[in-house]
Design brief:
heterodimer; A: alpha/beta; Rossmann fold; eight-stranded mixed sheet; four-stranded antiparallel sheet; 11 helices; globular; B: alpha/beta
Chain lengths: 320, 365
């Protein structure tokens, strides 16, 4: 079980805004005032359609962008206030990223051992060459590859194997927190399950915390402890993954879940999709995230709270 | 044609690719039928040969593809014997395709009205005005709002879902007999995907087009297909109606595929996965290509390729487990659950048909 006490927060995102082309006619509010916390040892799933801002959120957290406003606190430290080289280096050791495309995210001209050991070299984590090789080989074994794969080049591997190399690279610096941005969507179904199992195993063994960004809702439901639903750069709903399926309060969440194809012909024949009208988000009402039940947050205005409270007691709108 | 209900009959198709590393045996003897007005889904992982199969039907295989045998019969003609010019006539008129990525399958420098009207002008020799009028109708049919104002827009002015609607409009403007949809919704969001799939079903009901639907998403297959063919390493390993494949699968590979996809109810610490990776088709293994990843593999699997065993009139699977001499194996639990459901379904069907029979008799009396 995850400890959901305040002391166990590893990441706090507070009123994060990430705008692009600020002040120009084509200004984009990619992430527009979102707040959420991630607790040590949990997997927080971030879902939403393309353009919802989920990838931008991940990148802002790992500080690939300077936030327009708002605060990101990781392990008690404000990420925007890291000044010294030492602080920045420490932050980058603690937080790592696994990318979507296993073909584009590995340098084709580098050997696997040099790809995996890059972080080890930068952080001086190896005593000597022999130690470096051993660490790399151990990592390859951990992610289910062979020790002797270390002197090969990325093109010699399949998509699933490359994604394992990407995971080994992220693990090399012994991080606490890993952002996985669509880590399995480029892989085949039979390989997806392998990689998900590997991520779960590593989490158990190393007490890792994941921010898992994806659009495949059934996989997100399976891997995540809690799920945040994003739309148009805003966080609409946050709840445990069981709760969000049992009581999808926001119309958008219900609509999104009802659109997921299920490998069951009878279910599919009876499918009813819940429609969603996005204009309700732009009616000018003042909305903010409200904790409507323990650990269940919903973006709502004052007058909507009773409606959502009532919904909590009703059976799920989703098809059985 | 062997069967009057078929629009397409593929027999013993073998396709190799000549590469520097050697000959890749991409399609290793496959046969299947496509019936009029049905949707046949072909599922399998990348490299299993799904796309090569449909590209052969379209006559769009790469230069280094060698047809090693077989026939593709369409209206009593073998498409494999057609010249390139003859195929140009068939493609876009009788057989059309929707590709995965709408951004790369549309011409970014051509107005969409022209792109939709082009097949009419080329194949039917239609005059510009008439073709554009039909293109406009087609745009309305696939649900593009303000079609009249948008007919002179360029692809980049549309969202991903709208672009895929345009691609569908181009494919269907000539009312083709066969529509090939190669992962048509993989690049789209789930909500948009649901809209596009509904649109395809709706249009199919209107035009009675036969669809070959290629995808790796079994959820999409469950919603779209009448029949399903499962491909592995260049071969079809199991085929049947959508209910037979999802509720009564017989091939261990189909079991693995169904199990490795979590549903909304899946929990537990480990997802059942298929170990290993598909074989290298430069040198396909002797016997059953799935044997190395198959926990139910028998000794004979490594020696001899399994033939198709009949499960029902519409359902066949190529696995030695169905041989009467094979030991009884217990499929994974979720598959047993599915089979229980199937037993229930078929009982209901039998009861229903019995009921109908009695009613008919009563009427006769």
């Amino acid at each position: 079980m995850i400890d959901y006490s305040d002391e166990n927060k590893i990441l706090q995102v507070e009123h994060l805004k990430q705008y692009f082309n600020v002040g120009k006619p084509d200004e984009v509010k990619a992430v527009d005032d979102i707040s959420f916390d991630v607790y040590r040892g949990e997997t927080f799933g971030l879902v939403g359609e393309s353009g919802s801002g989920k990838t931008t959120t991940g990148r802002a957290i790992i500080h690939l962008y300077e936030p327009t406003s708002g605060k990101i606190v990781f392990d008690g430290q404000d990420v925007s206030k890291l000044r010294t080289k030492q602080q920045k280096k420490h932050f980058r050791r603690e937080m790592q990223m696994i990318f979507q495309d296993p073909y584009a995210s590995l340098n084709p001209r580098m050997k696997v051992k040099d790809i995996v050991a890059e972080g080890i070299d930068i952080n001086h984590l190896a005593k000597d060459d022999a130690d470096r090789s051993k660490q790399v080989e151990d990592l390859l074994e951990t992610v289910g590859l062979n020790r002797d794969h270390s002197s090969r080049y990325p093109h010699e591997f399949s998509g699933g194997q490359r994604q394992r190399i990407g995971i080994a690279r992220a693990l090399a610096v012994q991080p606490q927190f890993i952002i996985a941005d669509e880590p399995i969507s480029a892989l085949d179904v039979s390989i997806q399950a392998q990689v998900v199992n590997l991520l779960k195993k590593l989490q158990r063994e190393r007490n890792l915390t994941y921010l898992f960004i994806a659009h495949d809702l059934s996989m997100v439901k399976y891997i995540s402890d809690r799920i945040g639903v994003m739309h148009y750069g805003r966080m609409l709903e946050i709840a445990t993954s069981d709760e969000i399926y049992a009581h999808p309060l926001h119309d958008y969440t219900a609509s999104l879940l009802s659109a997921v194809p299920v490998p069951d012909p009878e279910y599919e024949r009876a499918r009813t999709q819940i429609p969603y009208d996005a204009s309700q988000e732009f009616d000018g009402k003042d909305r903010k995230l409200v904790e409507i039940a323990p650990h269940h947050w919903i973006r709502a205005s004052e007058d909507e709270i009773p409606i959502y409270k009532k919904r909590l007691t009703e059976p799920s709108r989703l098809q059985k | 044609m062997e069967n009057a209900n078929d629009i397409l009959e593929v027999r013993n198709l073998k396709i190799n690719f000549k590469t520097y590393a050697g000959t890749v045996k991409a399609i290793r003897d496959i046969s299947f039928d496509l019936r009029k007005g049905e949707t046949l889904a072909i599922v399998g992982e990348s490299g299993s040969g799904k796309s090569v199969t449909t590209r052969s039907i379209m006559g769009l295989n790469a230069e280094n593809a060698v047809i090693d045998g077989g026939t593709i019969m369409y209206k009593d003609q073998d498409l494999l014997k057609k010249t390139r010019k003859q195929m140009d006539q068939i493609r876009g008129r009788d057989i059309a395709e929707i590709f995965q990525d709408p951004m790369t399958s549309l011409d970014p420098t051509m107005k969409i009205g022209k792109q939709i009207a082009e097949p009419l002008i080329i194949h039917k020799g239609m005059k510009r005005e008439k073709a554009y009028a039909q293109a406009l109708e087609m745009m309305k049919l696939v649900g593009i709002d303000n079609a009249k104002e948008r007919i002179n827009d360029y692809p980049h002015q549309f969202s991903g879902g709208m672009r895929q609607r345009i691609v569908i409009a181009i494919a269907l403007v000539n009312y083709p007999e066969i529509l090939i949809a190669d992962e048509p919704t993989t690049a789209l969001d789930v909500t948009i995907q649901a809209q596009i799939l509904d649109l395809m079903k709706e249009l199919q009901a209107k035009t009675n087009t036969s669809i070959i639907f290629i995808t790796h998403d079994l959820g999409v297959v469950a919603g779209m297909a009448d029949r399903v063919a499962v491909m592995y390493a260049g071969k079809i390993v199991e085929y049947g109606t959508v209910d037979e494949i999802f509720y009564n699968p017989k091939h261990p590979y189909t079991w693995g595929l169904l199990n490795s996809m979590p549903t909304m109810d899946t929990s537990g610490t480990e997802l059942p996965s298929i170990p290993g990776t598909p074989p290298d088709l430069l040198d396909p293994p002797k016997g059953d290509a799935f044997a190395a990843r198959n926990q139910y593999a028998l000794e004979i699997d490594t020696k001899q390729q399994p033939p198709f065993f009949k499960v029902s009139d519409t359902h066949y699977a190529a696995t030695w487990l169905l041989d009467p001499r094979a030991p009884k194996v217990t499929p994974p639990d979720p598959i047993i659950e599915r089979q229980k459901h199937y037993a229930q379904l078929t009982h209901e069907a039998i009861d229903k048909s019995r009921g109908k029979h009695i009613e008919e008799q009563e009427e006769q009396l």
